[in-house]
Amino acid sequence: MSTQEKTLEEVLLDEAVKKENEIVLYNDDVNTFDHVIDTLIYACDHTPEQAEQCSIIVHYKGKCTVKTGAFNDLKPRCSMLLEAGLSAEII
């Protein structure tokens, strides 16, 4: 096996191991679009357009990934969503 092939295998293995966590937001019958949009802007640093698109996806599909990243970054963001009365979890 050549050095180039071995290096390539190691890089591919590192990429497969580094899976990012996701905050998934779920639909409910309680919160308004405006509340969801405002909360996504505040908690997830979304632009108004991003937040509106996510709220529409959640409404029609039942759920939407609203933020990806390291668990330590997502945990306080997910807590803010939950404190605002939204249904979300980190997966």
Element-by-element helix/strand order: HEHHEHE
Question: Structural class given helices, strands, pairing?
Answer: alpha+beta
- Overall shape: it is elongated
- In the CATH hierarchy, what is the architecture at level 2? 2-Layer Sandwich
Beta-strand content bin? 15-25%
- Mind summarizing the main beta sheet? 3 strands, antiparallel
- What's the total helix number? 4
CATH class: Alpha Beta
The domain tally reads 1
**Care to count the β-strands?**
3
Mean pLDDT equals: 90
CATH topology: Ribosomal Protein L30, Chain: A
Strand arrangement, major sheet: 2-1-3
Describe the structure.
Residues 19-83 form the Adaptor protein ClpS core domain. The protein has 91 residues and is α+β, with helices and mostly antiparallel strands. It has one domain: 2-Layer Sandwich (Ribosomal Protein L30, Chain: A). The protein is built from four helices and three strands; from the N terminus they run H-E-H-H-E-H-E. Helix 2 packs antiparallel against helix 4.
Give the helix/strand layout:
Layout: H1 3-17, E1 21-26, H2 33-44, H3 48-61, E2 63-69, H4 71-83, E3 87-90
Antiparallel strand pairs: 1-2, 1-3
Helix pairs in contact: 2-3, 2-4
How would you briefly describe this protein structure?
This is ATP-dependent Clp protease adaptor ClpS. 59% of the residues lie in helices and 19% in strands.
Features:
91 residues, alpha+beta, Ribosomal Protein L30, Chain: A, three-stranded antiparallel beta sheet, 59% helix
